[in-house]
Amino acid sequence: MAHLWVYAGIAAVVVVVVVRRLRGEPLNARDLFAAPVVLTALGLWSLAQHHGLRAGDYVWVGAGSVLGLALGALRGATVVLFEREGVLWQRYAGRTFLVAVLSLAVMAGFSLLAARCGLAADARPVQLSIGVGFLGEALVVGCRGLASGTPFAPERREAGPLSRFDR
User: Fold this and answer.
1) What's the pLDDT at 12?
2) Most buried residue among 104, 106, 114, 136 by CB atoms closer than 10 A?
3) From the first residue on, what is the mean pLDDT of each consecutive set of 10 residues in the chain (167 residues)?
4) 120: closest CA among 41, 38, 49?
5) E strand intervals along 27-166
6) CA-to-CA dists, residue 102 to 16, 63, 107, 109, 154, angstroms
7) What is the pLDDT of residue 16?
8) How many C-beta atoms lie closer than 10 Å to residue 19's C-beta?
9) What angle do CA 32, 24, 107 make, to 5 degrees?
């Protein structure tokens, strides 16, 4: 039952990120890197909870992470960057989704191959795969943003229950 909540949380994070980027959003470092770092950390934590992994398991995890990072970087190259109100914005394009579908197919094939070769299921955490993919995307988008010369958007100040004390 606990795994169900973890997967529901991961799905919620992914949906929020994709919807925001489909509509277009100001590009700032926190929004760019928060989801990838959190998902990758959760994946590494999940991997650390599985004891008894062999050296071969870690090789598969490493190879899968490199593949996910590369596919994310490819996806990051398709993200549209543009200036609005003097700051950098990002938006997913149709080709971004095409690369995402291709990435899912490649990663599914890699996962099936890993399972056929005996890699433990716990050594293939979904959140790690998604996290490193988003991390690859974030690195490429961040580098492209820096190279554009347009400033990143400032961090948004969320109105929360303690926001009145921030003055």
Assistant:
1) 84
2) 136
3) 73 81 89 90 86 83 93 97 95 94 92 85 79 95 96 76 42
4) 49
5) 80-84, 87-91
6) 21, 18, 9, 11, 33
7) 83
8) 11
9) 55
